[in-house]
Write a structure and sequence with these properties.
The chain is of the alpha+beta class. Helix content is 30%, strand content 20%. The protein contains three helices and six strands. The strands form two sheets. Strands 1-3-2 form a three-stranded antiparallel sheet. A hairpin with a 5-residue loop joins strand 2 and strand 3. The chain binds zinc ion (ZN) (3 copies).
């Protein structure tokens, strides 16, 4: 039992790691062994988020996407980058380019999570 759990985790982690775009539950389910059920995928993904291995993106389509964290320090799990969702191919990616956000002067920003949708370079 314990061994199977570990290998499911590993399989999902490898998938997220090797994917150049963020993945939603459906995409993950399609690309892992049939023995890994939906509930397990949910549980493992939440665990990865807690462990600061992946970050969650809520798309403008209302779906949750998960992306592997590249440079999260152990304490800081901040993702001050926008995400881009292509309405053509459905790809969701992390935009590396830093975006400046201006807030009212007495507000302090901790984190932001923005999604831009449109067409990616392959689809435009
Ligand atoms: Zn992170
Ligand atoms: Zn596209
Ligand atoms: Zn991201």
């Amino acid at each position: 039992m314990k061994r199977r759990k570990t290998s499911s985790q590993k399989e999902i982690l490898e998938l997220l790691k090797s994917s150049e775009s963020a993945l939603n539950h459906e995409m993950i389910k399609k690309n892992v062994s049939d023995s890994i059920d939906r509930a397990t995928i949910y549980r493992i993904l939440n665990r990865f988020c807690e462990d600061k291995i992946v970050h969650k993106i809520v798309g403008d389509d209302g779906k949750q996407y998960f992306a592997f964290c590249i440079n999260c320090e152990s304490k800081k799990h901040n993702h001050n980058h926008f995400h881009f969702r292509c309405v053509g191919c459905g790809k969701v990616e992390c935009l590396e380019k830093e975006v400046k956000v201006s807030l009212p002067s007495d507000y302090t920003m901790h984190n932001f999570n923005g999604v831009i949708s449109g067409f990616c370079s392959n689809c435009s």
